[in-house]
Amino acid sequence: MNEMSFQHYLLGLFAVANNVAAIPLYISLIQGRTEKEQHKICRTATLASFITMITSLFAGLAVLNFFEISIPAFRIAGGLLLLSTGFNMMNSVQKAMEMAEQTFSKIISTAIIPIAIPMTTGAGTMSTIILFSESARHQPYLQFSLMGAIGIMTVIIYITFYYAPKIVSYLGSTGLDVLTKIFGLITLALGIQFILTGISGAFPKIL
Questions:
Q1: Burial bucket for residue 9 (CB in 10 Å: 0-12, 13-18, 19+)
Q2: Could you identify which of 9, 22, 102, 191 might form a hypothetical disulfide with 149, taking C-beta atoms 3.0 to 4.6 angstroms apart as the criterion?
Q3: How many CA atoms are closer than 13 Å to the CA of 40, on its beta-carbon side?
Q4: What value, to the nearest 5°, has the Cα angle with vertex 117 and ends 116 and 121?
Q5: Among 156, 115, 118, which residue's Cα sits nearest to residue 26?
Q6: pLDDT band at residue 160, thresholds of 50, 70 and 90?
């Protein structure tokens, strides 16, 4: 993961922290709700995603050090996780989701789990940010670039949720499925790169 830049960080986060897969469930949550309630659901899901990303940025490496997990080992594990996430996205089939009548507090809870975590910012996102933060650890300008990428990704997540009804109406179920598969392919490629980098770090004579 050498020579990282703001564009690399943003593209990496865009691949693993997009909320495309969460849109069908999100749409089912906001149906029949007032505009004020819809906005609160949108803000809640976005805030939970932001907290997940920023916590991974500032505390992720400390957790790895506490459990004495090496960066190469975590790269390989994170890469395998991204491969799994990517395959799931590639094989996804959009299904209509019907939610039973729920209290608004229950809906807010659903906006956090599973919509924000893990459908938008799951373990793959956490792994990616931790690995990015390790590469930027001794370079302040890269740290600011990573924080900027997280900030922009948060805005993108909010806008996507906010305009989700229009996106679904415009793309249709087929278009949404194709978009999910595109992100799945990017996630697969990112996972393979993490694995190769991890192997080269653990076994420098192999690669």
A1: buried
A2: 9
A3: 12
A4: 80
A5: 115
A6: very high
pTM: 0.75
CA distance 59 to 160: 27
Q: What is the DSSP letter of 3?
A: S
Q: What does each C-alpha distance from 186 to 44, 52, 89, 161 come to in angstroms?
A: 27, 21, 10, 21
pLDDT tens-digit series, residues 101-141: 568 888 898 899 878 987 799 778 898 999 999 888 888 89
Q: Residue 173 above 80 pLDDT?
A: no
Lowest-pLDDT choice from 2-6, 77-81, 128-132, 189-193: 2-6
Domain range annotation of the chain: 6-202
Give the Cβ contact number of residue 36 at 10 Å.
Answer: 8
Distance of alpha carbon 160 from alpha carbon 109, whole angstroms: 19
